[in-house]
Each structure stands twice: as structure tokens, then as C-alpha cells.
Amino acid sequence: MKGSCTKPALFAMVLVVTMAAMASGQGTRVGFYSKTCRQAESIVKSTVESHFRTNPAVAPGLLRMHFHDCFVNGCDGSVLIDGPNTERKAVQNSLLRGFEVIDDAKGKLEAACPGVVSCADILALAARDSVVLTKGINWKVPTGRKDGRVSLQSDASSLPGFTSSIESQKQQFARFGLDTKDLVALVGGHTIGTAACLVFNYRLNNFTNGGPDPTIHPSFLPQLRALCPPNGNNLRRVDLDTGSASKFDTSFFTNLKNGRGVLESDQKLWTDPSTRSIIQQFLGEKGLKRLDFNKEFARSMVKMGNIDVKTGSNGEIRRVCSAIN
């Protein structure tokens, strides 16, 4: 019909409007640097692409880093600050990777637009670009964050842990206005990347009654034990999404369904009915309303990216991301 709007087009329009609404009232907006540093997003994108070509592991690293930043005192780039007793030194952040990408992008931005683009925004943009590089969805990232001045190692204790129950994870996400669907979508970011043996090898032996975690499928257990044997290298990296760790897709959820989740907290998404139903919707299981994982992930990333952002005089623009001005 002339003048009508197709369902995909209508959804896309609603998604853009919804994301804009989420960003408003927080001081961030899409295109914040359009007049002050027009090349800001392209510089970040090209920098991430350059590092990705030589080291694809930076993509999941940057995505995790953005999450860890936002969940500790808001999305203010404080996880980037280096020094004694900073967030970066916390055990929860000890395995984060990709700091060199942010530093590289910041150096190029300072050369092009001195003192304009925040480290917090660079990280948010780099996380989006990382998803795109791994064949995931592209979305518009609201910008305009200022950088925080405080980074304390002890504050990182608020991050969700790899043994956290679903109830605990829900409570931690709810503190930031994120619901259960956001929780499942954002944890779905584990479709790319790896985890060190030390964060899950306790599941393989002596977990309950001297045996392994019963939620691990028996056919998957020997594979994990071979990768992470007793007295082996605890820092060895293992794919979080077996068979598809370099592609942003729904196979991570299929693995959870089949008892092939690597992290205990991930596998619990399937064993808990309240989160399992959302996974089933992402997988398009018969009889349930289908949810598009990529679109829900993008929506949740925008919501997360506006957690306690600092704008105006509440923050600063750090000239070096690893140091306070």
C-alpha cells in the first residue's frame, strides 16, 4: 500500500527512536562530536580495525572492558586508569585485554582534536566496532560522556562473578536499570572471546560429591579436561562459545542449551527458568515469540552505556586514558 511502512522498517525506526530516548536526559546523544571532531568515530573505527587485523582477540577484550567500566561507578573510562590500587589492578580486571587499542585511538584523536573526545566515549565506540568486526550488529552509539577522576581497586568487587547465581546477577543488573532480558542479551556477548582455565576449571573435578559440575554435558567434559588438566596452565585461554568464538551469533545460547557453557554463571542462564525462556526466544524455538538477539543486544548496550555517565562539569577529558589529568 502506498505510504505504508513495512514491519522491518517500522522496527528499525522504533529502535532508533527508543535508543535516542534512552540517551536523552543523560547528556549523551548520537553525533555529539559532529561539530567539534567530525572524524572522531572514524578514527576509533580504523584504529580498532587495524589492531583487529593483527590480533582478533582485541574485539572481545574491548567489549568486556566496556562492560567492566560501566558496572563500576558508571561508564566513565575509570577502568582505563593505570596505577596502584586502581580498578585496572583488581583481580576481576586482571585478564582484560585491549588497553593498547584505546591508547592508540586516543593518541590519534589528541593529534586531530586535542582535548575533545573522552576516553569513556572511545571505549564505548570501540566496543560497538568490535561487535561489527565479528559479524554482529551495528548501532548508533550515543556519545558525550566525560571521564571520571576516581578509580579504586576495591570498587571492582561489585562486578558480577563467574560463580554468581541468576538471582544475584539480576540484582546486580537491576541496580543499573537493566532487566532480565538485558542480562541475557549482554551475557550473550560471550559469543566471542575466551576465558582462562582458572575461572572455570574448578567445575571439572570435585565440584559436588567429588564429581564434576552436573550441568556440564558428559560429552563436553573430556574436552574441557584436556584443555585444562590438573596442574596445567591456568592462564590457557578456552573459547567461551565452542565452535564459533570468533563470530557474533546465537551459537553461544545453543551451547548453553546443550550443556556446553564454559562459565558456571553462563550455564546457569539455561538452568534457571526465568532466563532460559529468553534464550529460547533468541533461538526462535517453536511456540515462543522470537526475539532478535542482535537487535536486543544493541538495545541493551545503549542502556548499559548510559549507566551513571558523567557530563558537563561532572568529569573531564583525559589527555592520556591511563592517567588522571
Automatic annotation (TrEMBL):
EC number in record: 1.11.1.7
Pfam families: peroxidase
Keyword Repeat: no
Location(s) in or outside the cell: Secreted
InterPro entries per record: Haem_peroxidase (IPR002016), Haem_peroxidase_sf (IPR010255), Peroxidase_pln (IPR000823), Peroxidases_AS (IPR019794), Peroxidases_heam-ligand_BS (IPR019793), Secretory_peroxidase (IPR033905)
Highest rank taxon of the organism: Eukaryota
SUPFAM superfamilies: Heme-dependent peroxidases
Taxonomic source organism: Hibiscus sabdariffa
Cofactor: Ca(2+); heme b
Protein name: Peroxidase
EC category name: oxidoreductase
UniProt keyword annotations, A-Z: Calcium, Disulfide bond, Heme, Hydrogen peroxide, Iron, Metal-binding, Oxidoreductase, Peroxidase, Secreted, Signal
